[in-house]
Amino acid sequence: MKKVNFFLTAVLSLACASCGSKNTLYPVSGKVMYNGAPASGATIFFHRQGGDPMNEHMIMGVVQDDGSFEIVCGSLGKGAPPGEYDIVIEWKPVTGQSKGRPQHGADKLKGRYADPKRPLLSASIKTEINNLPAFELTK
């Protein structure tokens, strides 16, 4: 019985250690500019390279009036786990409301930066405060 308890304790310890490092979030901020002006209202998504999008938290941020953004990792809070990420950006302005929910127009970027299968942008999140260089978008 002691051998079983020792084995279970060891397995649980290893499982908890791997969960802890995988889910530790580090602050991520940056700017999104379009032709030199802030892309105010755009949404930026981080997709972990090699990750399983069906089983991972959605990591995203909304670009503010000055072009800045901060990333939120679903219900876990602000930041993102360390790793390599593909970046997808959509910029769909709010055109109205229906049933209390905002309605969005067409992507101002015409989908150029919105295809997760062919991302044009990427970022590396490190185990520190991450102030990313500005994403400079063009037509």
TrEMBL record:
Top-level taxon of origin: Bacteria
Q: Which UniProt keywords apply?
A: Signal
Extract the PROSITE patterns matched here.
PROKAR_LIPOPROTEIN
**Signal peptide bounds:** 1-17
Keyword Signal listed? The answer is yes
Its name, as the record gives it, is: Lipoprotein
